[in-house]
Automatic annotation (TrEMBL):
The lineage of its organism: Eukaryota, Metazoa, Chordata, Craniata, Vertebrata. It comes from Ictalurus punctatus (Channel catfish). Belongs to the small GTPase superfamily. Arf family. It comes from the Eukaryota. This is ADP-ribosylation factor-like protein 5A. The keyword Nucleotide-binding applies. GO terms for biological process: protein localization to Golgi membrane. GO terms for molecular function: GTP binding; GTPase activity; metal ion binding.
Length: 179
């Protein structure tokens, strides 16, 4: 009886899973958010503050916060951390100069108490640009294999066409299923 009740509760309880989309300015965060929510390319302007959208995939609701990535805004990222289940880090794969800045921000985030249980999805965005960093290069620069206390996944994508974005969502869905 208890198990049936739990299953029914899960079925009808449209619980929202909180997701934050972070990364440096110009990485493609807002483009990704609007690909998820509208399936079309929008003309973005630098995000001041945040954008939020509810994304529904196969009856699973994600509340996705796209947080501005300019240097002046990064110190306020932690105000969004409470109850976050997934952190999506968007990397501009053409930006070799600033990948080390992303790494620093990443480890600062992962060490935060409120993100202890959050899963980490890294989008290696702008894969359409010739000569960009590969997933392997980005994994290495971010030292992802040293991340032991968070579930993580890296996914190549192109936010302009949407390629790779569904695979990222699928990974998040798969993590929800095993919990
Ligand atoms: P941000 O929200 O992380 O700051 P935006 O980034 O979503 O505003 O995107 C920054 C710029 O990168 C935009 O170009 C956007 O079109 C572009 N961009 C996003 N994703 C991709 C991608 O996969 N490939 C390529 N080639 N460009 C991408 P503009 O010119 O509008 O500033
Ligand atoms: Mg933006």
């Amino acid at each position: 009886m208890g198990i049936i009740f739990t299953k029914l509760w899960r079925l009808f309880n449209h619980q929202e899973h909180k997701v934050i989309i972070v990364g440096l300015d110009n990485a493609g965060k807002t483009t990704i958010l609007y690909q998820f929510s509208m399936n079309e390319v929008v003309h973005t302007s630098p995000t001041i503050g945040s954008n939020v959208e509810e994304i529904v995939v196969k009856n699973t609701h994600f509340l996705m916060w796209d947080i501005g990535g300019q240097e002046s805004l990064r110190s306020s990222w932690n105000t969004y951390y409470t109850n976050t289940e997934f952190v999506i880090v968007v990397v501009d794969s053409t930006d070799r100069e600033r990948i080390s800045v992303t790494r620093e921000e990443l480890y600062r985030m992962l060490a935060h108490e409120d993100l202890k249980k959050a899963g980490l999805l890294v989008f290696a965005n702008k894969q359409d640009v010739k000569g960009c960093m590969t997933v392997a290069e980005i994994s290495q620069s971010l030292q992802l294999t040293s991340v032991k206390d968070h579930q993580w996944h890296i996914q190549a994508c192109c936010a302009l066409t949407g390629e790779g974005l569904c695979q990222g969502l699928e990974w998040m869905m798969s993590r929800l299923r095993v919990r």
